[in-house]
Amino acid sequence: DWDMGTSDHGTIYYELIVGGDAVRVDLLENILDIYIPLDFFSGLREVDLGGVKTRAVGLEELLVLKAKIATKEAEEFINEVARLVLEHDIRLDYNKIKKYASLYPEDAEGILKRLRRNGIYVE
Length: 123
Fold this sequence. Notes:
The protein has two domains: 1-31, no CATH class; 36-117, no CATH class. A hairpin with a 2-residue loop joins strand 4 and strand 5. The N and C termini lie far apart (50 Å). The chain is of the alpha+beta class. It contains four helices and five strands. It has a three-stranded antiparallel sheet, with no helix packed on it. The protein has helices at residues 59-69, 72-87, 94-102, 108-117; strands at 2-6, 12-18, 21-27, 45-49, 52-56.
């Protein structure tokens, strides 16, 4: 038994039943489909989750990643975050957003346009 679909990144995947378990196999045409530049991780915060220390992305990083994938669901997420930012007077670091968007030189302006279109007004 098997099934086929596409991920949020637009890549194709197969789901196969192997030994009674569903196994997902993603087919990537280009590493840039999911590539996140190493510099993107420089500002991650360390958080403690029940005694387990891990690193977490901030809201600015998450917004850039969502704008990068450019799906309908991602844009709905950005729009909802924009609403919450206004409603709760949450401060965003717009310089950080521009910095992280610039790590994708081929798509930086597109990322910023998608953010603006969905209520995150980066100048």
